[in-house]
Amino acid sequence: MEKNFFVKSHGLGNEYIVLDKENIDFELTKKAIQTLCNVHFGIGSDGILLKVPSEKADFGLRIFNPDGSEAEKSGNGLRIFCKFLYDYGFTKGSKEFSVETKGGIVKAKIEKEEKGKAKIITIDMGKAVFDTDKIPVNINDKECIDYPLKVEDKEFKINCVSVGNPHCVILVDNVPEMFDEKQVKKYGPKIENNPIFPNRTNVQFVKVIDKNTAEIKIWERGAGYTLASGSSSSAVASVLYKKGLTDSDITIKMEGGELKISLDKDFNIKMTGEVQEICKGTLSEELIENIKE
Ligand SMILES: N[C@H](CCC[C@H](N)C(=O)O)C(=O)O
User: Fold this and answer.
1) Which long-range contacts (CB under 8 A, 24 or more apart) does 30-39 make?
2) What positions does the entry give for substrate binding (predicted)?
3) Whole-angstrom Cα distance, residue 260 to residue 269?
4) Ligand 1, pocket-test mutation among 163, 165, 232, most atoms within 8 A of CB
5) Residues 149, 287: Cα–Cα separation, whole Å
6) Is 93 exposed, middle or buried (0-12, 13-18, 19+ CB in 10 A)?
């Protein structure tokens, strides 16, 4: 692989740049991440996936948001990373392997390939956790379900969960006006940065369609409005199942496409969906010089 080789892929329109730490000759600083993710000064992306060594799993992954912050988990990011590992020969043909993330070790399975390239991937996203001290959410209650949160002129009933990264799930049935991109972009950051979330949070606005289908709009921590999110889909499915609003197998519909989520009775999550490579190449010397400044 050439020095500073990169691949850019997307999972349902939520795109990432993949880099291999052993193959780049610059530090992935906050400035480097922000530049690479910027569509004008860099490649443009919803985040960076950095392949790193692991002692505990077959592979290691660090996930960075465009604002430079590090995420514990990313569902689309994991599917994109596992496609990269399989397509570029790192798994030596194996279709099942493990990946260590900041939010725990996950198992991956290449479900479907076409011409030797991974197309559909299932990720065991780990277990949904509702304990407020583990999410974390700074409120006195042990769990944060239907908790009233005032945000400017609105009061939301929030449901918080961690799937490795923190999520704040809001059903729109009593705030139907919130199922709208403009409204999500207005209130999303105010919730993301609310002081009850010491590590900030991802935010989802949810419309339940039936017992096996929900539709969501997403405001991501450190990334903003995105067309799809695997960890958000996992978080929403867990909250809806816990509240008895849906069954344990659910399709989450998003602007960028849909993901299949299945839960067991202990809230262990499986997520299945497509991934597509967009482009690959090497970062130019001039870009790297700018990043290093
Ligand atoms: N912004 C998220 C990470 C990426 C999540 C999303 N892209 C996904 O597919 O899960 C966070 O800071 O927790």
Assistant:
1) 30/68, 31/68, 31/291, 32/291, 33/64, 33/65, 33/66, 33/68, 34/66, 34/67, 34/68, 35/287, 35/290, 35/291, 36/283, 36/291, 37/66, 38/66
2) 14, 65, 75-76, 165, 202, 220-221, 230-231
3) 10
4) 165
5) 43
6) exposed
Which residue is listed with tokens 């790192």?
Answer: 90
- The answer to whether 138 is annotated as binding is no
Q: State residue 292's pLDDT score.
A: 87
Domains of the chain: 5-124+275-292 (3.10.310.10), 147-266 (3.10.310.10)
Q: Does the predicted model carry a pTM greater than 0.80? A: yes
> What ipTM does this complex have?
0.98
In the structure, which protein residues have their CB atom closer than 6 angstroms to any atom of ligand 1?
14, 46, 65, 71, 74-77, 165, 202, 220-223, 226, 229-232
Mean pLDDT, range 59-80, rounded to an integer: 98
260 burial level (CB within 10 Å; 0-12, 13-18, 19+): middle
Per DSSP bridges, beta strands 224-226 and 14-20 are: unpaired
**106-152 confidence digits (pLDDT tens):** 999 999 999 999 999 999 999 999 999 999 999 999 999 999 999 99
In whole angstroms, give the CA distance from residue 232 to residue 255: 13
Is there a contact between 175 and 139 (Cβ–Cβ < 8 Å)?
no
